[in-house]
Amino acid sequence: MIAVSVEEHEGYSEIVVKGRLTMTGVGHLKSAVADAIAQGHRLLVLNMRETEFMDSSGLGAIVGCLKAAREAGGDLRLGQISEGVGAVLTRTSMDRVLAPNGANSAATTPEKS
Predict the structure, then answer these.
(1) Which residue(s) pair with 7 in the sheet?
(2) Coil vs helix vs strand at 83
(3) Between β-strands 2-9 and 12-21, what pairing exists: parallel, antiparallel or unpaired?
(4) Which CATH number applies to 2-111: 1.10.3210.10, 3.30.1380.10, 1.10.405.10, 3.30.750.24?
(5) What whole-number distance in Å separates Cα of residue 74 and Cα of residue 84?
(6) Do 80 and 104 contact (CB within 8 A), yes or no?
(7) Which tens digits make up the pLDDT trace of 59-90?
């Protein structure tokens, strides 16, 4: 099960992903990002602090969302991430591609479960 929500902050929109980001849930993430971009938000911050698990489909969705944000003249950055998601991003070197968000004091700090 996955829940994706968008929270607006001054200067950026936070995409909050809770649950398991797998093949069955990537559409929710893509839709949330597409909607935020369509509404004119350019800086998107991905909060995956409560993401329990992410498979290769989830990773692919993040890459697609990053591409969509950049094509719209914006960016997708990392906010808080869970320890498991952090491990996947590190193993795939995506932690080097996705910049941490400076507006979030806990950016890219994996939460210990």
Answers:
(1) 14
(2) helix
(3) antiparallel
(4) 3.30.750.24
(5) 27
(6) yes
(7) 999 999 999 999 999 999 999 999 999 999 99
